[in-house]
From TrEMBL:
Domain HTH luxR-type: 71-136
Protein name as it appears in the record: HTH luxR-type domain-containing protein
Gene3D superfamilies assigned to the protein according to its UniProt record, in alphabetical order: Winged helix-like DNA-binding domain superfamily/Winged helix DNA-binding domain
Any one Gene Ontology molecular-function term assigned to this protein's record: DNA binding
PROSITE patterns given in the database record: HTH_LUXR_2
Alphabetical UniProt keywords: DNA-binding, Transcription, Transcription regulation
A Pfam family: GerE
Stored SUPFAM superfamilies: C-terminal effector domain of the bipartite response regulators (SSF46894)
Superkingdom of origin organism: Bacteria
Biological processes, Gene Ontology terms: regulation of DNA-templated transcription
Family matches, as InterPro entries: HTH_58_Actinobacteria-type, Sig_transdc_resp-reg_C-effctor, Tscrpt_reg_LuxR_C, WH-like_DNA-bd_sf
Source organism per UniProt: Rugosimonospora africana
Length: 147
């Protein structure tokens, strides 16, 4: 199947441990073409060591998530208090910790979280943080958490 291998097939082979050299040999593609297709698909190339094992379903989910469009229209508008709560959620804050930090009651934080979820269309805190990053409401560095 020279030059006929789909990008999805290349991703599956690579994530299941095949080297770029082995994939090129099996598919009849050049090393450059295999590497270029993998990089264009957003696959992080290995620099050495054992290959991670990823299932085909995981590859599909990752690709779909990366290309999923946000709802049409402008990003939801959040008040500064809601943005502060999102930042603290991104850092792993519990309602109690957020309440103490912002001098609010835990009930007020819980109510605000529900309002944030509704505005963003989120199902839970992790989803709210992910959507906020995708909308540009949170910078990625703010959502990396404490180390």
């Amino acid at each position: 199947m020279p030059d006929q291998a789909s990008t999805d097939d290349l991703i599956v082979r690579y994530t299941h441990g095949s080297s770029i050299h082995a994939i090129a040999t099996e598919t009849g593609l050049t090393h450059y073409k295999v590497r270029s297709r993998l990089m264009a698909a957003g696959v992080e190339l290995r620099t050495g060591g054992p290959a991670p094992r990823v299932q085909a379903a995981e590859v599909r989910v990752i690709r779909e998530s990366a290309t999923r469009a946000l709802p049409a229209g402008p990003a939801p508008r959040l008040i500064p208090r809601h943005l502060a709560i999102l930042h603290l959620l991104a850092d792993g804050g519990t309602d109690k910790l957020i309440a103490e930090t912002l001098h609010l009651s835990p009930a007020a934080v819980s109510n605000d979280r529900q309002l944030i979820y509704g505005r963003l269309g989120a199902r839970n805190g992790a989803h709210a943080v992910a959507l906020a990053i995708r909308y540009g409401l949170l910078r990625f560095a703010a959502a990396r958490g404490r180390r």
